[in-house]
Design a protein that fits this description.
This protein is mainly alpha-helical and about 55 residues long. It is about 30% helix and about 0% strand. It has 2 helices and no strands. The radius of gyration is 11 Å and the shape is globular.
Length: about 55
């Protein structure tokens, strides 16, 4: 997953022992809520917006 996110231009670091990845969507110019909704509606992929994890999300 990390490799594919990076190839798409979304910066993503290799997680240190976790089973999830947390790509940066900063380059898209969208909020995490907008990105998550767009991904769901256009690609039928459900994700949790980073904003639910606090200010660092």
């Amino acid at each position: 997953m990390v490799k594919f996110f990076n190839e798409m231009g979304l910066d993503c670091h290799l997680p240190g022992g976790a089973f999830y990845v947390f790509p940066s969507i900063h380059k898209t110019g969208m909020t995490s809520e907008h990105f998550a909704e767009k991904l769901l509606l256009e690609e039928r992929v459900a994700v949790v917006p980073g904003s639910v994890f606090g200010a660092g999300g």
